[in-house]
Amino acid sequence: MNVAILGSGQIGTDLLIKLSKLSEFKVILVSGRREDSPGLKMAKEMDISTSTSGIDGILALKELDVLIDCTSAAD
């Protein structure tokens, strides 16, 4: 299943690590707001696409099966 993660802070980064260990899931995009966030840095190191456009970066995806929202409650 192709997965996108919305939120590139601690929660999104933790999920990225866990999903990368499971063969059933392929993270195809991590989207956040800050270029220097931990999740975006890690995704780039893993050759996973990134976006700083938040949800707009995800809405453009064609091959998405699952979107996981890892943003804070305030966002």
List the helices and strands and how they pair.
Blueprint: E1 2-6, H1 10-20, E2 26-31, H2 38-45, E3 49-51, H3 55-59, E4 66-69
Parallel strand pairs: 1-2, 1-4, 2-3
Helix pairs in contact: 1-2
Uncertain runs are: none
Q: H/E series, N to C? A: EHEHEHE
> How far from one another are the termini?
26 Å
Overall pLDDT confidence: 93
Tally of separate helices = 3
Beta-strand content bin = 15-25%
Number of strands: 4
Shape: globular
Largest sheet: 4 strands, parallel
Radius of gyration: 11 Å
Structural class of the secondary elements?
alpha/beta
**What percent of residues adopt helix (DSSP H or I)?**
25-40%
Strand order of the largest sheet: 3-2-1-4
Notes on the structure:
The protein is an alpha/beta fold. Helices cover 32% and strands 24% of the residues. It has 3 helices and 4 strands. The protein has a 4-stranded parallel beta sheet. The model has no long low-confidence stretch (mean pLDDT 93).
Keywords:
alpha/beta; single chain; 4-stranded parallel sheet; 32% helix; 75 residues
